Amino acid sequence: MDVPKNLHKALEPFLIIVGSLSVSMVLFGGFVAAAGANPIEVYHTMYRAAFGSSFSWQNTLVRATPLMLTALCTALPGYLGLIIIGGEGAVVIGGLAAALAALTMPTAPPMVVLTTMAFVGMVAGGIWLAIGGALRHYRAVNETISSLLLNYIAIAVLNHLVTSTFRDPESLNHPSTYHIGEANMIGLIPGTDLHWGLVFGIVACVLAWFLMHRTVFGFGSQIAGGNVRAAQIAGLPVGRLILIVCFVAGAAGGLAGMVEVAAIHGRANDTLNANYGYAGILVAFVARNNPLAILPVAVLLGGIRASSGLLQRAHELPDATVLVMQGIIFLVILFSETLYGRFSQLQKQGVA
Amino acid sequence: MAPSHKLTRRQVLKGTAAVGALGMLGSLDWLGQAWGAQDKVKMGFIFVGPRDDYGYNQAHFEGKSAVAKLDWVKAFDEEKVPETIEVQKSMESMVQLDGAQVLFPTSFGYFDPHILKVAPQYPNVLFLHCGGLYQEGKHPKNVGSYFGYIDESQYVAGIVAGGMTKTGKLGFVAAKPIPQVLRNINSYTLGARSVRPNCTTNVIFTGDWSLPVREAEATNSLVDQGIDVITCHVDSPKVVMTTAEKRGIYCTGYHVNQSKLAPRGYLTGAEWNWAKVYMDYADMIRKGQKVPNLVRGGLKEGLVRVSDYNQVVTESVRKQADAAKAKFMSGAMIVYKGPLKDNAGNVAIPAGKEYVQTDYWLESMDWLVEGVIGSTKS
Q: Which residue of B3, B78, B82 is in closest CB contact with A312?
């Protein structure tokens, strides 16, 4: 029947990922032991700092929020077989565009301003990544390289505009745009210290999953990702699929930028370039491009980042410790990709 | 979700306080009064970059390490904390999990909006920020700022550079054309021109605080243009110093002492002395004194200093530099006094006008003094 088969399809990646994470933890434990710390204590500290209390959970979720959105920048084009790493650029351009949009409407009510900011930020981020997709489709330019280079262009555009045309003259030693206004800031989810960006991230991931797994459009994208020739022969508009998927992916990054501006900074400045786009690549990779898997992976990575502070303070380990952990997880997951289809027990049951 | 998801953070805080981790929550008025003398002063430091960057962050880390040696202080720190909501969480974590009584978030970008957002939630914790932005009435009372007039040290270093250059051309690798940076460039140039009047300073702005590759390119490019002494204002001067040493020219340092990186060419340098600041703060808190919201100072107050001269620095140059230093120490030195032209030929400061170090006008500097080759346009 269908149900056990589906369950089966989910079981293999689940077991492999859990297995990889366990192996990573053992390896990392060896690393911290070599660095002179007690691995059990380190893990205890990490747990305490990331998930041990209400405050820790909020700390983790706040750090996971932008990663949920930026992971989509890489995950969605992945369905088409494209490796896009331009999330950073989409965040920067989206945040910049959103801030500028808000500044054009000083008298509008906050809901209108925020809606416009989200819309403009998403369109700007979407167009930014769609450039990479278009270059791929029409000019056969490698999308990985072009999207990476687009990041640098985005950062340069941001730095130029906030230090010249759109600079708030009051922002003496930290060039920024004008503030969008306290009234226009996104508030907190009641009863928590979390801003609404978290909800945006979760909704975006769920919608993205629905789009790619439950619609004709998503089906077509997966076909095109599997075999472009076959898709073209079947009459699928591959170019349009690439452009739209890249646009949607970039829109998620643009929304992340908008949230940074509207929920945290209130201005666009160089802090938009906080490497969330790059961290998102790792999340998408570990989640194997599945939008629903992005959610727990982003929380895991957010937790690792959240634990860095206490690790430094409690064990005097450098910040690089958590980077080592991220690196180990990344490598082990990369290696575990070779394990798919290797466990005959899983396969046989799958056929049955 | 969290096991205690029904609790608000405030409630959790109170619970923690009851356990005793946060002794200060019971304090009524100002920090310090709540603790007995036997309690350790808990100080948390946050750095934007690595602790060992030979630059801005290392300068603060050295200050932290000095204060951590006191047996009545417990100091802890975090490095590489970005200027996003993450620093807000780091600050809260230090207060909630470690019971920090005073925080030193040292990067400029931590102030607005992050410190301003977190500080009001923890009125019994002091938030002391490096950068000097505190404004009475506008900012929360438990916020303060401290900064040093490091351009005084740059002025002295400029004298050494001006005295030692053969070509009369100095180089300056700078991050961004913002007031703090421009003031260093101008003071350096004024120092150099006080001993060698037609000396020039070539400036290259790299565009950001930490771009090692571009800093190396800028240094090489300046050397190719004939400069023979170089300095910088970026987060980590490491690359500029090592590149200068490799190219066989002189350099003067910034932030901390970099003589180890360039033993032959490191003439002197402008250094922070945060240890002094942090010791003073710790002492005030232990004694329960009110901590001033604004701490400023230069060579005279001991917030900044000048690296020991390299042995190649000649006796006459040392004398000139020491004379200027002595003048700063006595408070008699005024760097910015008219007539002074900017490098476009306009009058920057008219004759007869003087700006003392503490003058706020100097903190919105947007011009380069005559003798600087470069533009504030990024």
A: B78
d(CA B128, CA B115): 9
Judging contacts by C-beta atoms under 8 Å, the chain A residues touching residue B177 are: 163
- Does residue A168 belong to the interface with chain B, where contact is any CB pair within 8 Å? no
The per-residue pLDDT for A130 is 97
Distances (CA, A) of B336 to B304, B321, B342: 19, 17, 12
Of B85, B93, B378, the CB nearest to A309: B93
Find residue B253's DSSP bridge partners.
Answer: B269
Chain A residues touching B9 at Cβ < 8 A: 54-55, 58, 192-193
Among A158, A159, A271, most B C-beta atoms within 10 A, so best to mutate, is A271
Distance in angstroms (rounded) separating the CA atoms of residues B82 and A276? 11
ipTM rounded to 2 decimals = 0.89
Cβ-nearest to A174 among B51, B94, B109: B109
Vertex B316: Cα angle to B310 and B321 (nearest 5): 65
User: Using the beta-carbon criterion (under 8 Å), do A173 and B51 form an inter-chain contact?
Assistant: no
CA torsion A307→A310→A315→A319, rounded to 10°?
A: 60
Average pLDDT, chain A: 92
> Does B213 contact chain A (CB < 8 Å)?
no
> Of A59, A82, A75, which is closest to residue A146 (Cα–Cα)?
A82
pTM (2 decimals)? 0.87
**Which pair of tokens denotes residue A142?**
């490698």
CA B11 to chain centroid:
37
* Cα distance between residue B142 and residue B132, in whole Å: 14
pLDDT above 70 (res A191): yes
The one-character DSSP state at B290 is P
Question: Above 50 in pLDDT, residue A322?
Answer: yes
